[in-house]
C-alpha cells in the first residue's frame, strides 16, 4: 500500500530544486539557499524506496515556486500578523504581490480547529524553523501544494493544504498532524507520491485514542478520507503497547456488531484490551484469554452493562481522557 517512487517524480524533484530555492530565514528577501540542517530533515519524508517531494520553508521570506505548473515561478510570502487586544496571531499570504489572506482562511478556518493558532507563531524561530511546506501530493498533475500548519487550541496539530491555479487559491483539505514536527524532526504523515497521504486521526468514542487513516485526492482535486470499517488503535505513544483495562463493573461482550446477538457478561476484575472501533457504536476488545468481542456504545462515551448503559469511566479502569 506504499507505492514506489516513479522516475518522473525523481526528475520533477531535481527540476524543481533548480526553480525553487527552498527557504532561508532572511526576512522578506529572496531565498537563495536551504539551511544545511534541512538536508537531514528531508529524510523524514522518505520511506524505504518511496519519496514524496516536500520542500520545507521558514516564515516571512519570499519563496519562488512554480505552484501552477505553467513554467514560471510564483513569488510566495507567508507572514505572521499579531494583534494585542486580544492577543492573537493571523497569517498573511501574498502570491506575486497579490493578497490571498482571505482565500487562505475562507474555507479552511475552523476545519479541525485550523487557523486558531498558526504553527510557530508563539515560539522562538531559528533559521532551521519550519513553518510551512511546499509539497507535491500528485506528481501526475501540474500543481504543487502549499501545506500550512496550525497548533490548534490545545496542541491539536493540523495541516491545511492549498492549491494555486494562477489566479485562485483553493483549500483542498485539512488533516490531523504536522507535515513537519519540530519535536521529532520528522513528519507526522506519510506522503505516498500518488495522490494520497497517511496520518493519524483522533477517534471520537470512549476515550482519547488514535488511529491512522489514508486521505486521497478525489476527482475534483480535494482530499477525502478513505473510510474504514474498523479503525484500529495505532497511537505512537499511549497505545503502542495497548494497555489493559480492569473492569470496575460487569460489562456485556457481544460476539458481533449486532445488538440483537446474545452477549456474554464479563465480571468486575477481569482485564481487557481495546483494539479499535467503528468510531460510531462499537468498540473491538480482547479478553485475557485472547477472545475478541464487541462493546456496545450509546453515544460516544456510554457502554452497555447488564444494568443498562453507564459512563465508560465507571466500567473500564484506566481510560485516557487527555485533551
Helix and strand pattern = HHEEEEEEEHEEEEEEEEEEEEEEEEEH
Total strands: 24
Intertermini distance: 32 Å
Biggest beta sheet attributes: 7 strands, antiparallel
Helix content: under 10%
Mean pLDDT: 80
Overall 3D form: elongated
* Rg over C-alpha atoms, rounded to the nearest angstrom: 23 Å
Q: What are the segments in which pLDDT stays under 50 over at least 5 consecutive residues?
A: 1-51
Report the structural category.
mainly beta
Strand content: 35-45%
Number of helices: 4
State the main characteristics.
mainly beta, 36% strand, seven-stranded antiparallel sheet, disordered N terminus, 323 residues, 4 helices
Describe the structure.
The protein is mainly β and about 325 residues long. It has helices spanning about 5-20, 35-40, 100-105, 310-315; strands at about 45, 50, 55, 60-65, 75-85, 90-95, 100, 130-135, 145-150, 160-165, 170-175, 190, 195-200, 210-215, 225, 230, 245, 250-255, 265, 270-275, 280-285, 290-300, 300-305, 310. The strands form 6 sheets. Strands 16, 17, 20, 21, 22, 23 and 24 form a 7-stranded antiparallel sheet that branches. It is elongated.
